[in-house]
Amino acid sequence: MYHPFNNSVWVIFFFCNIIAQVISHSDSVAEMDSIEPQAGVSVADDYGPYACKGMENNSGGGSGPRPFKVVCRNKKENASMTCNFNGNPHPCSTYNKNQAKFYKQLLDKVGGFVQNNKQCGPPTMEAKICPDIMYKIVR
Fold first, then answer.
1. Fewer CB atoms < 10 Å away: N or C end of the chain?
2. Whole-angstrom Cα distance, residue 95 to residue 103?
């Protein structure tokens, strides 16, 4: 026998399911967006259970500071952390000629630190190709 209540429950269930899928999709997109570079050089590598991606933000242009954002995702625990650093690499002529190598060396330091300490760091770091240029963690 048809009862109007049965039909209403089904409609509510259907719409709740659609809303849950939309929310789940938007969370996934937001997580991916947080890993995408804002502008500039992007480097990535794995460090033990962590997949790390580093991005230079050159949205300010010119020869000023270049924030460096690193997102490391623990592939086993499905958790991630974001580490932000700031420094000005422009006084180093080697940086100007090989920016990807510079940021890869910084990423290697962050990735190694995250793998060993399970937290953002180190507090300060430099790339081998520009040992006089210090990047500091932004807390």
1. N
2. 9
pTM of the full structure: 0.72
64-86: burial string, b at 16+ Cβ within 10 Å, e else: eebbbbbbbbbeeeeebeebebe
Helix (H/G/I), strand (E/B), else coil: 85: strand
CA dist 109 and 87 (Å) reads 15
Q: What is the mean pLDDT of residues 120-125?
A: 95
E-strand spans in the chain? 42-47, 50-56, 68-74, 79-86, 124-127, 130-138
Cα–Cα distance between 109 and 89 in angstroms, integer?
A: 16
Q: pLDDT tens digit string along 56-114?
A: 998 777 888 999 999 999 999 989 999 999 999 999 999 988 999 999 999 999 999 99
DSSP, residue by residue, 93-111: HHHHH-HHHHHHHHHHHHH
Place of tokens 């006089």: 132
